[in-house]
Amino acid sequence: MDIYNKSVVELSKLLNKKKVSSLEMTDYFINRIKSFDSKLNSFITIDEDHARKQAKIADELIANNKNNLLTGIPIAHKDLFSTKGMLTTCASKMLENYTPPFDATIVNKLNEAGMVNIGKTNMDEFAMGSSNESSYFGVVKNPWDLKKVPGGSSGGSASAVAARLIPIATGSDTGGSIRQPASFCGLTGLKPTYGSVSRYGMIAYASSLDQGGPIATSAEDCALLFNKIKGYDKNDPTSNFNTDQDEVKLALKKQDTKNITIGIPKEYFSKDLDRNISDIIYQSIEVFKKLGFNFKEISLPDHDYTIPAYYIIASAEASSNLSRYDGVKFGHRCDKPKNLEDLYLRTRKEGFGKEVKKRIMIGAYALSSGYYDEYYMKALKIRRIIRDNFINAFKDVDYIFAPTCPSTAFDLGEKSSDALEMYLSDIYTTPVNLAGLPAISIPVGFSNNMPVGMQIIGNYFTEANILSIAHLFQEETGWHNRIPEDFDHE
Ligand code: GLN
């Protein structure tokens, strides 16, 4: 059964035509994980029994014609989505033994669609990182080159999908964690508009920036998943009503390309960007020009302030969100605490890793009286300016193209001792989160045998359009179908 290289759309057809059952497909991918994941470490939990139970239910739905395009398709969730009865660790010792009593809304919606949850993917601890080196459960490797990082923080999801151990996975993007690993692993990843997907049950890192979304091989598959997970949820007051379009149909709709103008922000193509990446992006722009799109250089000023503002805001929110891990309510508790203070101190000292502690300290400092105005307030003002700059740009152009990352995947260990270098790898992704906009990263070529990603950034709630632009490109090119050699076999 040669199905590892099929997209969700293709797998769905096989299920529908009864060429394969969901149970067979589920066993097939479980076996693939068992044979290949020792090289990658992309999974934290594999729950075979749970998966087979869901697959049997999916097969019944298919037999009774009660299925949709996602019914019976295996998926894996980033290990920060709460899964009822299934370990949810956030890749931290703090939650090493935590089993939630409820499902995150995303998980719940996909369960209801009949998807088969095979397990939970590895990630940076509490989603803090750009390389997947901060997981309590060990580093994840990039299937294109096992000496390189897969990107972070959704590195497990990206690594697993790139090696075709699973056809599609969920991720979360606070400052780039869907788009950056998608780019490093040659995949398509959608970061939706802030509020278009419920955050309920997604363990919080920085609540005003966090947003869940799909990591898949194609824009079409991302559209399928996004269509199911989006929408208002009474459990998340920041979720939005404004998402009723059918992205799948829209994604396949022919665009009136001659009337679409795409902005190229000059600040994103400066000396910080690897020359090869810039050349590859310009080559793919030629493909878009042939499709009829118009291009225009634009300016997104104040770009240099993005990283400082992002890391202050994200750390400030993290320091507040992570105060709940105190050894009282849930998660790790230190042994034999002498008193309450000892309980707090030792629990948090033992439970959190180095990067998480660093962020908590930066955040607490930025929020402390005396420094609040100097750091946190200033960062919020920069955030507003960055948002306004995007809004101004969208008066002039319909979409914006940008590199996803300044380099391709770097070596394991290369940046882990230099925090600033690591943080700078988010320079092209974080502005989108600060503004709350949607963006997709698509593979557009290779530099030194490593995949290169490009972002299509849209105005608020234009997911359907950016998906369809990505889809048009993927119909013309085959980059998204490439599979790393070591994993391109049964
Ligand atoms: N690399 C960024 C950070 O560490 C983004 C992480 C994310 O998007 N979850 O904060």
Structure description:
By secondary structure, the chain is α/β, with parallel strands linked by helices. It has a single domain (1-490), classed as Amidase signature (AS) enzymes. It has helices spanning 8-16, 22-40, 48-63, 105-112, 155-162, 179-184, 219-229, 247-252, 275-290, 306-321, 340-351, 354-367, 372-396, 419-424, 430-435, 463-476; strands at 43-46, 74-78, 116-121, 168-172, 188-191, 212-216, 261-265, 294-298, 399-403, 439-447, 450-457. Helix 7 packs antiparallel against helix 16. The model has no long low-confidence stretch (mean pLDDT 95). The structure holds glutamine.
In short:
The chain is α/β, with parallel strands linked by helices and 490 residues long. The chain has a single domain, classed as Amidase signature (AS) enzymes (Alpha-Beta Complex), CATH 3.90.1300.10.
Ligand set? glutamine
Q: What is the CATH superfamily label? A: Amidase signature (AS) domain
Got a strand count? 11
Number of domains: 1
pLDDT averaged residue by residue: 95
CATH class, please? Alpha Beta
List the helices and strands and how they pair.
Layout: H1 8-16, H2 22-40, E1 43-46, H3 48-63, E2 74-78, H4 105-112, E3 116-121, H5 155-162, E4 168-172, H6 179-184, E5 188-191, E6 212-216, H7 219-229, H8 247-252, E7 261-265, H9 275-290, E8 294-298, H10 306-321, H11 340-351, H12 354-367, H13 372-396, E9 399-403, H14 419-424, H15 430-435, E10 439-447, E11 450-457, H16 463-476
Parallel strand pairs: 2-3, 7-8, 7-9
Antiparallel strand pairs: 1-3, 4-6, 5-6, 5-10, 9-11, 10-11
Helix pairs in contact: 2-3, 7-16, 10-12, 10-13
The protein binds glutamine.
